[in-house]
Design brief:
Helix content: under 10%
Number of strands: 12
Number of helices: 1
Strand content: over 45%
Distance between the termini: 91 Å
Structural class: mainly beta
Strand order of the largest sheet: 1-2-3-4-5-6-8-10-11-12
Shape: globular
Length: 184
Amino acid sequence: MRSLRLAVLPLLAAALFSSPVSAQVETTPIPAAVKPDFSSMRFLVGTWRCSIKSSRRPLAYITTSVYALDPSGYWLNEATTVKPPAWEPTALRTYDKITYDADTQRWIDVTYGDQGAFGLTTSSGWNGGELIWHDRAFVSGASIRSATDTTLTKVSPAKYSTATSFVETSSGRTVTVNGICTKR
């Protein structure tokens, strides 16, 4: 009986692993994602000077943000430089890549920058002149217990404001952060 099984095994293996149909190579290209409609964001393209006031600082600090559409048509890129205020000896830089996810029907903003800065925010889009960004990457930590959404309000094609706040872990104090940005 054992010799019969041994004789049948090669025949069975040959039947299972040989196929009259040869493997086919997929030739259909991967479908390209639909490019975002940046018409509602196009006013941002250009250079902006922002004055940002934190309630825990004596003076506002100044940033310069440059927005440009990526040549691929999928991203609105923002590069921001913070002019060194009295409490920060070096200029800080952050970079944002903004796109629209048609599948989830929301704007996505991926942020990275100096000193390990990172973020991921989403928005369902404009409601009148307001765009509300919800932080998806916020992790409470040693210094911040919680944070609110950030509201960007389009005042005119050459001016917008921002508003957010957070709660300090150590004191429980709510800190507001408001910005006014004007196009150069």
